[in-house]
Amino acid sequence: DTEVTQTPKHLVMGMTNKKSLKCEQHMGHRAMYWYKQKAKKPPELMFVYSYEKLSINESVPSRFSPECPNSSLLNLHLHALQPEDSALYLCASSQWAGEKLFFGSGTQLSVL
Amino acid sequence: QKEVEQNSGPLSVPEGAIASLNCTYSDRGSQSFFWYRQYSGKSPELIMSIYSNGDKEDGRFTAQLNKASQYVSLLIRDSQPSDSATYLCAVNIGLTQGPSGTYKYIFGTGTRLKVLA
Question: Which residue among A45, A90, A97 sits closest to B101, beta carbon to beta carbon?
Fold first, then answer.
């Protein structure tokens, strides 16, 4: 199994909603990542978890809250988002931090 | 200066030609280098990884790394229309070392490749 599974694939939410994005991998990878990608731009790193500990937070606003319940799961909790947060949110994993990334198919998020 | 730079393109090549994609990076502490392909509306997928100076070949793809000049390139031989995509160069900078170390993974802006049939 070489997949990173993300749910949901599409999400529309209002600015007062709370929602969560979920990511799962069963490759035994010990590093997991959240990226944000706007149209025609490269992926922008948000968070890195290494061995289930948050190792990088790229000054992301607190309305985004990551969680790593175990080595296979990564969540991104969303609250009080702004329309400019609309983007493709990508989860990725690697064997350990610094190694090649395997991406999930992404969640296309629209904030109304 | 941007940390990872790529020409945004589009780079247009005829079918069957060699496509040459280039990337420069600014941090001499960069340790590993990757090329990802991203089709429109899809997530990036790994094409090549390279860690030491020289060439690395995999099928129609060759990655070239020159750490002294701080560039990495990707050659695609016998280009096909299905190769039309955005190619992202990514560089990994080790902030603290080891398997549980801290690494900053930085993407370039990507080069859009169009292979003309």
Answer: A97
Cβ(A108)–Cβ(A11) under 8 Å? yes
Cα–Cα nearest to A77, from A51, A46, A112, A40: A46
Question: Whole-angstrom Cα distance, residue B45 to residue B37?
Answer: 5
The answer to whether residue B2 scores a pLDDT higher than 70 is no
Q: Which residue of A has its CA nearest to B36?
A: A101
**Contacting residues of B for A42, CB less than 8 Å apart:** 88, 107-110
Say what the pLDDT of residue A39 is.
92
Within 6-45 of A, beta carbons closer than 8 Å to B belong to: 30, 33, 41-45
Tens of pLDDT, residues B63-73: 999 999 999 99
Three-state helix/strand/coil letters over A17-75: CEEEEEEEECCCCCEEEEEEECCCCCCEEEEEEECCEEEEECCCCCCEEEEEEECCEEE
Q: Distance between CA B102 and CA B93 in Å, rounded? A: 9
Higher pLDDT, B90 or B104: B90
Tell me the pairing of strands B111-116 and B11-14: parallel
| pLDDT at residue B99 in the model | 60
**Nearby residues of B97 by Cβ (< 8 Å), 6 or more positions away:** none
